[in-house]
Amino acid sequence: MRPVGVGAIIGAGLLLLGGALLGASAVTYLGSPEPLDSFSGSVVFTVNGQLVQYSPWIPDTLAVLLLGAGLVMLVASLVLTAVAWGPRRERVY
Amino acid sequence: MASDRSFDPRFDPAFQRGFDGGLVGPAVVERSAQVELTEASPAPPRVTLPLVEFVEAPSANDAPRTLRGNPWIPALWATAILLTGAGVAAQYFAQQIVYAPTASSAVVAYVFPAVSAALSPWLFAVGLATGVATMVIYALRWSPRG
Questions:
Q1: Contacts A30 to B, Cβ<8 Å
Q2: What are the pLDDT digits (tens) for A65-93?
Q3: Residue A42: what are its φ and ψ, rounded to 5°?
Q4: Are B3 and B23 in contact (CB under 8 A)?
Q5: CB contact A82 to B (< 8 Å)
Q6: Are A54 and A34 in contact (CB under 8 A)?
Q7: Is the ipTM of this complex over 0.90?
Q8: Measured between beta carbons, which residues in chain A are less than 8 angstroms from residue B58?
Q9: Does B15 touch chain A if contact means CB atoms closer than 8 Å?
Q10: What Cα–Cα distance (Å) separates residue B28 from each residue in A75, B10, B12, B99?
Q11: Is residue A46 very low, low, confident or very high in pLDDT (cuts 50, 70, 90)?
Q12: HSE toward the beta carbon, residue B75, CA cutoff 13 A
């Protein structure tokens, strides 16, 4: 396999890993609401008929880093593919 | 006069300075084959030399000098525009949602703005870098003849 293809696969893997980590972190956050507190200043939501509150969420730093690195790898693979591209030549024996 | 000039024997004298369409100068003919040119002697035979002696075959690893027909260049431009626009839009909508008076759910109120704000710098920077890389490719492949 060409190095460009390997880079694209690594980039896609990093994107998937980062997205999975970010999704798992968001699911964990949404599954653990805080009890109502009149002095917290947070917005009150209705979840399954119950009033709940959430503190502001900060995304996982590692997940964001993996997403960014995957994006960089994919775009770099695209750039290298464009540089190495050549018209198809007829093979002459 | 072309007869007292010397032609480069590697190339056709017709394409060299001083050739007047007539006889080929003495440098074209081998020294041992030179004869005295007199009024009665016929014109020496014109020596025909190959125009191209050696042409290097193009290697399969040589990248072409032109970008014409390269399908990845439009893809690069599209990627650059999309990523840059997505970065700007993510930052804009994240701020709009954060300062919105009401939100329907915690996903809209907290998760989406946080993810958008975190990914916006990456999207914007990678989009700009893609555009710069595409312009660098154009600059490297540029030639005066187009």
A1: 106-107, 111
A2: 999 999 999 999 999 999 988 776 656 66
A3: -85, 160
A4: yes
A5: yes
A6: yes
A7: no
A8: 89
A9: no
A10: 59, 9, 9, 88
A11: confident
A12: 15
Locus of tokens 């027909």: B69
Tokens of A47: 């979840």
List Cα–Cα distances, B37 to B23, B43, B49, in angstroms.
11, 8, 22
Would you give the DSSP letter of residue B109?
I
Spell out a b/e string for B44-78, using b for 16 or more CB atoms within 10 Å of the CB, else e. eeeeeeeeeeeeeeeeeeeeeeebeebebbeebee
Please name the residue that has the structure tokens 């840059």.
B84
pLDDT score recorded for residue B2: 46
Within 10 Å of residue A81's Cβ, how many Cβ atoms? 19
Structure tokens at B108: 């809209």
